[in-house]
Design brief:
The complex is a heterotrimer of chains A (273), B (151) and C (497).
Chain A lengths: L3 E6 L4 E7 L1 H6 L5 E5 L6 E10 L4 E7 L3 H7 L9 E6 L10 E7 L3 H13 L3 E8 L8 H6 L3 E6 L6 E2 L2 H11 L4 E5 L2 H13 L4 E4 L15 E4 L2 E4 H4 L2 E3 L5 H8 L3 H13 L1
Chain B lengths: L6 H25 L3 H25 L31 H25 L3 H28 L5
Helix pairs in contact in B: 1-2, 1-4, 3-4
Chain C lengths: L1 H11 L2 H9 L2 H6 L10 H4 L12 H10 L18 H9 L3 H11 L3 H7 L6 H4 L1 H6 L6 H14 L15 E5 L3 H12 L3 E5 L8 H4 L8 H13 L3 E3 L10 H6 L2 E6 L5 E2 L12 E3 H10 L16 E5 L3 H12 L4 E5 L11 H9 L3 E3 L2 E8 L5 E14 L5 E5 L5 E4 L2 E4 L3 E2 L3 H5 L25 E3 L2 H4 L4 H27 L1
Parallel strand pairs in C: 1-2, 1-4, 2-3, 4-16, 6-14, 7-8, 7-14, 8-9
Antiparallel strand pairs in C: 5-15, 10-11, 11-12, 11-13
The chains are: A alpha/beta (273), B mainly alpha (151), C alpha/beta (497).
């Protein structure tokens, strides 16, 4: 179990792994994530399940290299085993007919966005998708997202692909043109914070899928806690999706950076090896 | 500002407050997702109903004496963040919420006691304040025993 | 219970034991002072995770065993939640038959190496000891002797496979590999059942592994015991969250006929005070899991932990003491316990509190945090403490802490570990809509059978009790295995008809 069946790089830093995990594949729904660990001394990290194949018993993870563990994952090859894969965890996305959905995906946040967009489209919604990133290299899954979107817009900060500008500009443009019934926002915490402010301004109900630090992922430690509407919630068991307008993103950003120095040092040391 | 011209006025006001609490807890009980939390709110309804009935009895002339001792105050909810009730709230949250409500009621009656000159009215307000405080302590003890069991 | 009393009496009258009693007069036995457990020097051990208690040597163990008077009415047994035949194993030690001593222990206790270390003997068996009750002297060191026997077995490769009934091929599932689950699994396996233990984490052992630090309970000891369980055919499947990875219905479809739920009380309780989500404020679960389970204190392990110079641990139970002593070992200059009541009321074991004091832990009694403050990066830097006084006993007889207005003061802290209590893991209750749950989230069970409101689901340990001890969990696991066996056999009979 946990054998890597397929691997593909989308760019230098973003890659996909298809892993043998028949039980997880069977139980998985859009929105679920797994906790992954490599080696006896490895740490546990959460990764959203981008897709699952029940027939073949596999799950697909799309990962960006941001530190030691994601880098280690990127160096595994087809046929290698991942030490521990546990899931599916979290609440599944609530799929319903809302009318027109605006899906705003930032960077590797598009990976968890894909199954949601797919499910919402199949449920009968009109889906307008924005893929946004700093630069062309970080735009991923364009073809797959296009398949499940009525419209697809690409925005890059540096203009190397699609429109030049921030995701918030892209959102404003779309909101000006047509009525949006609901938004789903997934990406780096900063992106989600500002994207939520846009939809809040326009009174569009919005869901954000949060990507906090986790240790166990099953609700026992509270590492992933966030404040939602002034109440403490655990992303791993109460989320990962929450009402975007009620999330305290500033607090979440602080907590996300709790180990940033240690992470940076560890990553630099690891790359030197 | 409410003006009380008689003991009856005071009691009517208190009875109305208790009824408001009963109505609120009824609503929360209906919406509670966790059956045990629902039962908790139903228990609160019973307690507030008893309280309301006691006040009604007072109105009908059955006198109650004021125990001279002050009720202990653990003040657990004084320092916690305000709880907003929600359908999926836990029992621990329900207790904190109830503590806050009882405290607000206690403060109201204490305030009224301080502002009234008539000794009879004052006595009744203090009695009511003490009842609310007792109620609050009951919830605090539950919370202390179960949530803060290692503190 | 009557039956076992008869057994203990019969065994007491055996020749070897009668001879042993004659070897030394009672008055000589009671003259021996209670053994002092050798301990690593506090200033050395507070910088490492080496086990604090060194264990007894053979000679010293035998001498301590001599203190036991082999009472006609051994009251110590009544103090043991799993009813270990205490005089028998102690007398085996005295007669140098260590292999038999451990065998005796394992008849009723699946994890003697664990219990000998973490059981609160002072409120259980040792409290009921004749020495405590009648002589008003220090009791026989039953816990140290239990540990001695278990360690002896492990170090000398004496471990024997217990007797197992013929396999009946009936599949049983145990959810959770903590002490309750391990005990239930062992008992059912010995009865011939095909037992699979499902564990959500990647390591087997539950709270034994993630919660109790290595300086009290080394992980290698737990692994040794788990290997013994594997040898009797128990299957362990880690990274498997029953209710998420698979449903109970699907497990039934796979042929599992009964379930034991030992999923524990792993949900951390926070205090809901302002600033509690600042960086550097942990639940004790997170703090201990990072260090004990994920190796955060070891430089070659990937998982980090934040542990600063001024660490405050809120709470007074064993978990709080474990956390504050861990903080000291991680280099805290000030490692402080902040506890709302007085020292006499701390639920932690007296021995652990003593060890903590020796290691330089500071104790702030009748103190309670009411707010935290952070720097511009959101990292906690100070907390506001309020002093308490103990009020009059209430109807339950307990004195409640009452805050003193105006007593607040500020303390510099850069790490806080909140260890005020735990609640039951909510997952199982969420996925089994029909199961009867208490208002606190515990699974409600028949107290003799440990059977829930769903007839094929049994439960025990912290998921039933809220946060409690290892030995009580083990007792539940034992009770449940007996009841599950009855239940399954009844079902089998019904199906045959």
């Amino acid at each position: 179990m946990n054998k890597i069946i397929d691997k593909e790089f989308f760019s230098n830093n973003v890659f996909k792994l298809v892993i043998e995990a028949p039980e997880i594949a069977k139980a998985r729904k859009a929105g679920h994530f797994v906790i992954v660990r490599i080696g006896d001394k490895g740490e546990r990290i959460p990764l959203t399940i981008t897709a699952a194949d029940v027939l073949n018993g596999t799950i697909t993870l799309v990962i960006q290299c941001v530190g030691v563990t994601s880098k280690k994952l990127s160096l595994l090859e087809i046929g290698d085993f991942i030490t521990d894969v546990a899931g599916p965890l979290g609440h599944a996305t609530h799929i319903e007919i809302v009318g027109t959905l605006l899906a705003a995906g930032g960077g590797v946040g598009v990976a968890p966005m894909l199954p949601i967009v797919e499910a919402m489209k199949k449920a009968g919604n009109r889906v307008i998708t924005i893929l946004a990133a700093r630069t062309k290299d970080l735009i991923i899954l364009e073809e797959q997202m296009k398949q499940y979107s009525d419209e697809l817009h690409i925005w890059t900060d540096d203009g190397t692909y699609g429109n030049k500008g921030l995701v918030t500009q892209g959102m404003e443009e779309i909101i000006q043109k047509e009525k949006i019934n609901q938004a789903v926002i997934i990406g780096p915490a900063v992106m989600m914070k500002y994207a939520s402010l846009v939809t809040k301004k326009h009174n569009i109900p919005s869901i954000a899928s949060l990507n906090t630090i986790m240790v166990d992922g099953t609700g026992m430690c509270g590492a992933c806690r966030v404040s939602v509407d002034g109440k403490t919630k655990f992303v791993c068991v109460d989320g990962p999706e929450f009402d975007a307008h009620k999330v305290d993103f500033d607090e979440m950003l602080f907590r996300l950076n709790a180990y940033s120095e240690q992470e940076k040092t560890a990553y630099e040391q690891y790359l030197k090896q | 500002m409410i003006n009380f011209n008689s003991i009856d006025d005071v009691l009517n006001f208190a009875i109305a407050e208790e009824q408001a609490a009963i109505d609120l807890y009824t609503l929360l009980a209906e919406k509670a997702v966790n059956p045990a939390v629902r039962k908790t709110f139903e228990d609160f309804i019973q307690e507030e109903t008893r309280h309301r009935d006691k006040l009604s009895q007072m109105k009908e002339g059955k006198k109650f004496t004021l125990q001279p001792s002050e009720v202990q105050e653990m003040k657990i909810s004084d320092y916690t963040l305000t709880i907003k009730p929600s359908p999926d709230m836990t029992y621990a949250d329900a207790l904190l919420y109830a503590m806050n409500k009882e405290k607000a009621a206690f403060k109201l009656y204490t305030h009224l006691a301080a502002r009234t000159a008539a000794p009879e009215l004052k006595k009744i307000f203090l009695l009511l304040a003490q009842e609310e405080s007792n109620h609050k302590l009951h919830f605090e003890i539950e919370y202390d025993d179960h949530v803060l069991n290692e503190d | 219970m009557d039956e076992s009393l008869i057994i203990t009496e019969t065994e007491r009258n055996q020749e070897w034991r009668a001879e042993l009693r004659k070897n030394l007069k009672n008055k000589d036995r009671t003259a021996i002072p209670r053994v002092k457990m050798p301990e690593v020097d506090p200033q050395i051990r507070n910088k490492s995770f080496i086990e604090v208690n060194d264990g007894l040597s053979e000679d010293i163990a035998i001498r301590e065993a001599q203190r036991c008077l082999d009472c006609v009415d051994p009251t110590c047994i009544s103090g043991c939640p799993v009813g270990i035949n205490i005089p028998k194993f102690i007398k085996k030690i005295e007669s140098k038959d260590f292999a038999e001593a451990i065998k005796t222990l394992k008849e009723t206790n699946v994890l003697p190496a664990v219990c000998g270390r973490v059981c609160p003997q002072e409120v259980q068996c040792e409290k009921q000891c004749f020495y405590t009750q009648k002589l008003k002297k220090q009791p026989v060191a039953i816990g140290y002797l239990e540990r001695f026997a278990a360690d002896y077995e492990r170090k000398n490769g004496l471990a024997s496979t217990p007797e197992i009934s013929e396999s009946n091929g009936i599949k049983v599932a145990v959810v959770g590999s903590g002490p309750a689950g391990l005990t239930c699994a062992c008992d059912l396996a010995k009865m011939g059942y095909d037992v699979t233990v499902f564990e959500a984490l990647h390591e087997i052992g539950g709270v034994l592994k993630y919660g109790i630090p290595e300086f009290r309970l080394p992980n290698e000891i737990i692994d040794f015991e788990i290997n013994q369980l594997k040898k009797i055919g128990i299957k362990f499947i880690p990274n498997f969250i029953v209710g998420k990875t698979i449903s109970f219905d699907d497990l039934k479809a796979q042929g599992f006929v009964s379930f034991f739920v030992g999923s524990g009380a792993g949900l951390p309780n926070f205090m809901n005070i302002p600033g509690e989500n600042f960086v550097g404020i942990f639940s004790s679960n997170e703090y201990l899991t990072r260090v004990n389970l994920m190796g955060a204190a070891k430089p070659d392990y990937d998982t980090p932990v934040i542990s600063g110079k001024n660490v405050a641990v809120i709470g007074g139970g064993n978990t709080a003491i474990d956390s504050v002593r861990t903080a000291k070992r991680l280099g805290a200059e000030r490692a402080m316990i902040i506890y709302r009541r007085s020292k006499e009321e701390m639920p932690a074991r007296v021995e652990e509190v003593k060890h903590a004091e020796e290691e330089g832990i500071e104790f702030f009694m009748l103190s309670n945090p009411i707010q935290y403050f952070a720097d511009e990066k959101g990292r906690v830097k100070q907390m506001k403490i309020q002093k308490m006084i103990l009020g009059e006993p209430d109807a339950s007889g307990r004195r409640r802490p009452v805050p003193q207005e105006g007593s607040e003061y500020i303390v510099d802290v850069d790490t806080v570990v909140v260890s005020v209590g735990v609640s039951p893991n909510p997952l199982i209750a969420q996925v089994l809509k029909d199961i009867n749950i208490s208002k606190w989230g515990t699974i409600v069970v028949d107290e003799n059978k440990m059977q829930s409101s769903i007839e094929d689901i049994f439960a025990g340990g912290d998921i039933v009790r809220g946060g409690a001890t290892v030995i009580l969990a083990m007792g539940d696991g034992r009770k449940a295995s007996v009841a599950m066996h009855e239940y399954i056999q009844q079902k089998v009979k019904q199906n045959i008809k």
